[in-house]
Amino acid sequence: LFLKLPSDPFKYLCWCDIEDHDVRGNQLHCPRVREAGPSEEELFFRGEEQTLKKRKQVTDTEKWQKKLQENWENCAELNLSFQDLGDLYQVENFKRILQRLIRVEKLWLVDNSLTDLSAIRLPRCRELNVNKNHFTSFKQLPKIPRIQHLSLAENNIMTLSGISDFRHTPLESLILKRNPCEFQERYRQLVFSSLPNLKTLDGIPKLPEDCSPPEIRFFFKMCTIL
């Protein structure tokens, strides 16, 4: 399947869909899953009927065989970073793959311009890296009941609201560097009070001053004039 690329710098290049191979999804640690071209419905709405006619008609059997070959259900460790998801149909296909990762334990989704994965559930995920995305809240993260190591550096999380949702998970280390919430007053104390099982925050182990007793916390609200 050959399709012209839309951007001028690539006008002499074409997408190439390799059909005859026996590589399965769980055999790849860093696959490129970005959709090579628009779906048939997308092409129709764009008025590109000529391109649509050139496409090979894919039967239901071929679609089912492709789905089995992807085999995302058996992936235990997967890196889906830097996918360059520029269009809605690419994002939707990406989420379709995430929904099939029922056995993944380590997952990297760095720099994918992701904004909301709250509809995704990763039941076995222990390590998740979503650095350099566009999350603004902990509520937008996927459901990760077994998470131990979570990295959220360089997102746009404004407050710590919703962080207590991880209170009943085995979360041990959390990275929130370069998020606006990092500048909140008593940032480290608030995080550790919300997550009693947390051992490391932003690469720094839990310190005695990170778990101040109630009587000491009172003085944070007082203004002392010398």
From TrEMBL:
The family database entries (InterPro entries) matched by this protein are listed as: LRR_dom_sf
Positions of transmembrane segments: none
Q: Which UniProt keywords apply?
A: Leucine-rich repeat, Repeat
Q: Which SUPFAM superfamilies match?
A: L domain-like
Name it: TILB protein
Gene name of the record: Lrcc6
